[in-house]
Design goal:
With 107 residues, the chain is mostly beta strands. It has strands spanning 2-7, 12-19, 33-37, 50-51, 57-63, 68-75, 79-81, 88-91, 97-102. Strands 3, 6, 7, 8 and 9 form a five-stranded antiparallel β-sheet that branches. A four-stranded antiparallel β-sheet has the order 1-2-5-4, with no helix packed on it.
Length: 107
């Protein structure tokens, strides 16, 4: 799930990414999840997601308005996973679909 919230005082958007336990692969025990994308130069470690009590993973980051960003989740440091509520999908440079989030322009 993705939630977009405009922060007027900073003129930016707070984007919350949440992977619910129900969305995760049933046959794969997920211990860690990272958010990886254009916004962090595809760094696999810089944006670890919080592991919540109910088994969900969550992170909130600020993104510039009026931009599109490609991203994916990295589970346990080895398995790539997509956000099924992404705004769109594009073919990435490694032949797999990347998720896209479109951040609205300043209201």
């Amino acid at each position: 799930m993705i939630k977009k919230q405009y922060i007027k005082t900073r003129q930016t958007y707070k984007i919350t990414f949440r992977l619910s336990k129900q969305e995760l692969p049933e046959d794969y025990e997920v211990k860690t999840a990272h958010l990886v994308g254009d916004f962090n130069d595809w760094d696999r470690e810089s944006l670890p997601m919080d592991h919540l009590k109910k088994g969900d993973f969550k992170i909130a980051i600020d993104l510039e308005p009026g931009q599109k960003y490609e991203f994916r989740y990295l589970l346990n440091g080895t398995k790539w996973y997509n956000e099924w509520e992404a705004d769109e999908y594009v073919l990435g440079e490694f032949g797999k679909d990347n998720c896209v989030i479109e951040v609205p322009k300043i209201p």
